């Protein structure tokens, strides 16, 4: 693979081999003691006396500045320390022995750390510089050294994949160095705060500078990136023109604590954001990340984490994948034990004449359940408050008509009550009266009571009393019906009310429609009698 070289350098004077370290004398310091602690050759104390014009090497005046060539300072291996770990990670020694990573572990030259999914770790180096390794990151520590007791540290590690947040300490001396290498980039910085992301799939590096300033060099050129800007570097290409980081979204969290498991987090949409990045931590510095996700819209479900005090931050991500400034807020969660799901009656259902039987699922964290039923959704004056061991309740004490709200919470074995689930609503209504139909206009027009607003009517006409042989089956808005066709046999008719929600009431009384009377036979008899009388 052809590697792209990406250099991010804190904007200081260039380092040269001839540079000196300036040591400031403290009380009781001697030139001999200093040389013993910091120089490769202790006998160079005489050279230090000469180039600094020191009259008495045993009596140094506090505050005196002593110039020390960097080449004379002894270099020794340093260590890094795992200061915090959330989840799990693997520690691979340079001899390829693997073991679970633990907080307090010492990282040495040649060691590797692999962070598992849903995990993160914070590592501190000898000079106090600290990094946060996000989930699914893999790091190899290539160079860890320090220069005597000068405070100058040379730290270099390789990020094979993943995401690193860096909080680099300012350089103590010109030999100080901090460098992150990737398969496509090298980031050398000092005294700044920035983020580096490398996707294993494309080896594209993205850098966002939050504090300080860096110079970013790619194969095709170099750009200066100031605080508040970011860039993206593809393999074998120059960094893109510095892009201003998207502003932090407006983000409000009320109420607190959050006790509604179904609640969504909302923030104000950021112009030019293609999506958003959310991260959760137990510390305001986000030393470790316990939950993270990307959101396509300016909202997100709550993280599935234990109850407690957290900090959450959200930032916009532009079309190049460059992440902007974050809004950070404290977040208190009190969501456990989790509430059950309501089963019946379904939301906004109307129960006609039936006694309500409320049912819900069995929640894993629940030993019992707390049920409330009220006539308002604020539950200030509940009609029913019951603690139950079952997952159903027959609410036979409720009024026979009206709107009701109900909700259920889980109660743990220790007696702790969790948040209520989503409030559901139902109505009770008496069964609508069966309409009584009447036949008018010689059996042509059938009518019944007008009913209530938005009610409809189902009319059935059949040739048998069981209505197996239907002649007509209609849903009508009006409360009357006209029969256009003549019938030659008895027909049967019934009507019932259809409520706006589709509930069908009972059928009204059976009605009969008789065919019109045939008087022609009487006429024939009359004509016959008249003929006889005329004979």
UniProtKB/TrEMBL annotation:
Residues 422-444 are annotated as: Disordered. SMART domains: LysM (SM00257). Keywords: Signal. Coiled coil: none annotated. Pfam families: FecR (PF04773), LysM (PF01476). InterPro entries: FecR, Ig-like_fold, LysM, LysM_dom_sf, UCP029644. Residues 20-68 form the LysM domain. PANTHER family: FECR PROTEIN DOMAIN-CONTAINING PROTEIN (PTHR38731:SF1), LIPL45-RELATED LIPOPROTEIN-RELATED (PTHR38731). This is LysM peptidoglycan-binding domain-containing protein.
């Amino acid at each position: 693979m052809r590697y792209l070289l990406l250099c991010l350098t804190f904007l200081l004077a260039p380092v040269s081999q001839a540079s000196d370290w300036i040591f400031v004398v403290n009380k009781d310091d001697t030139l001999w003691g200093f040389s013993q602690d910091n120089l490769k050759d202790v006998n160079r104390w005489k050279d230090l006396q000469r180039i600094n014009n020191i009259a008495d090497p045993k009596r140094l005046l506090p505050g005196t500045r002593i110039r020390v060539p960097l080449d004379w300072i002894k270099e020794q291996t340093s260590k890094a320390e795992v200061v915090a770990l959330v989840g799990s990670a693997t520690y691979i020694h340079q001899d390829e022995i693997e073991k679970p990573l633990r907080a307090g572990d010492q990282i040495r030259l040649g060691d590797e750390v692999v962070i598992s999914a849903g995990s993160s770790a914070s590592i501190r180096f000898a000079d106090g510089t600290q990094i946060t390794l996000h989930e699914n990151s893999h790091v190899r520590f290539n160079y860890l050294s320090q220069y005597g007791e000068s405070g100058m540290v040379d730290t270099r590690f390789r990020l094979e994949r993943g995401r690193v947040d860096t909080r680099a300490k300012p350089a103590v001396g010109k030999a100080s160095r901090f460098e992150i290498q990737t398969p496509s980039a090298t980031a050398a910085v000092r005294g700044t705060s920035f983020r580096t992301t490398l996707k294993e799939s494309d080896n594209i590096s993205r850098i966002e500078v939050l504090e300080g300033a860096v110079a970013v060099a790619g194969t095709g050129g170099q750009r200066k990136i100031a605080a508040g800007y970011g860039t993206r570097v593809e393999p074998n290409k120059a960094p893109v023109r510095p892009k201003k980081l998207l502003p932090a979204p407006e983000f409000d969290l009320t109420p607190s604590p959050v006790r509604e498991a179904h609640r969504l987090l909302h923030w104000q949409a950021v112009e030019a954001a293609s999506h958003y990045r959310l991260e959760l931590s137990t510390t305001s510095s986000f030393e470790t990340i316990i939950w993270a996700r990307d959101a396509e819209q300016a909202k997100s479900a709550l993280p599935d984490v234990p109850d407690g005090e957290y900090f959450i931050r959200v930032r916009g991500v532009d079309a190049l994948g460059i992440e902007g400034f974050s809004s950070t807020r404290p977040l208190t969660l009190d969501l456990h034990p989790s509430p059950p799901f309501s089963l019946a009656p379904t939301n906004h259902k109307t129960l006609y004449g039936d006694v309500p039987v409320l049912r819900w699922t069995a929640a894993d964290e629940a030993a019992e359940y707390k049920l409330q039923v009220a006539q308002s959704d604020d539950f200030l004056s509940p009609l029913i408050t019951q603690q139950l061991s079952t997952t159903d309740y027959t609410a036979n004490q409720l009024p026979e008509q009206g709107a009701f709200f109900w909700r259920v919470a889980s109660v743990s074995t220790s007696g702790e009550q969790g948040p209520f689930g989503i409030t559901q609503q139902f109505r009770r209504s008496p069964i609508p009266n069966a309409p009584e139909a009447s036949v008018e206009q010689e059996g042509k027009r059938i009518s019944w009571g007008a009913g209530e607003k938005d009610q409809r009517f189902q009319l059935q006409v059949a040739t048998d009393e069981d209505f197996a042989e239907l002649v007509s089956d209609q849903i009508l808005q009006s409360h009357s019906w006209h029969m256009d066709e003549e019938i030659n046999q008895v027909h049967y008719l019934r009507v019932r009310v259809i409520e706006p929600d589709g509930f069908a009431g009972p059928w009204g009384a059976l009605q009969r429609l008789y065919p019109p009377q045939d008087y022609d036979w009487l006429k024939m008899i009359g004509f016959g009698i008249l003929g006889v009388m005329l004979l």
